[in-house]
What does this fold into?
Amino acid sequence: MKRTLLLAVVMTLIAACATSPTGRRQLMLISPEAAIVESKKAYLSTVDELDKENKLIDDPKMADRVATITGRLVTVAVQKFPASAKWEWSVAIIDDPETVNAWCMAGGRMAVYTGLFEKLKLTDDEFAQIMGHEISHALANHTAERMSRAMATSVGVVAVGVASENKIAAMGGAAMAAKLALELPNSRSAESEADRIGMQLATLAGFDPEAAVTLWQKMGAAGGGSRPPEFLSTHPAPTNRETELNAMIPAMRDLNPKRTKAPVHPVEIVR
It folds into this structure.
């Protein structure tokens, strides 16, 4: 019985695989469509709480800047990934001057924090790189992938616990194994994937690809130069990332030599 359960879990994990836009194998225990549905619920709940706390920025100048730059990126995203034309593209601008962050959920629902602008003093090209990177996470189904990893961890813990004489120890070991075998390698790969796709989106939208390098230099400086050991980091170390981004710039420039600006796709600013 125990061996049958373990075999069933293993076969499920093997079968639940997909291929990312760059050809990388992805674990998919939940479909991208289901991830979009669940992301919408989470997003609406988050936005509702932020609204109650008066944390949503309604500054016309900032809203126009965010909507215009993001809209150019979305135009390219829809061209390259036609299924995203049906997404509900929106951005919540969150009043939090201490938080340097932005994210994009499955289905095109995004958020940016004011700390991103206040602490990094971003140029339009640098902001385009951030949003291109975050949009790429959604386009490459990274939300579904993260949810699948979480599900796989739960399934693995249960299976190993059943098969073990020491269930508590087995559960702890399974959780660590799942983190190392699933979360870290996939997250690191996903970050590199989002770097590449994001730079392509930004370049095709008319923004300078070199801004990807200056952006991460600013990120590194904002972090005080400190980072966890590369092996345990979900992001590539700053030096490696900068090297990889620099290596991509010549090919990116060829995509849009004149840096022609893409049209602005409608993007809702959540108020």
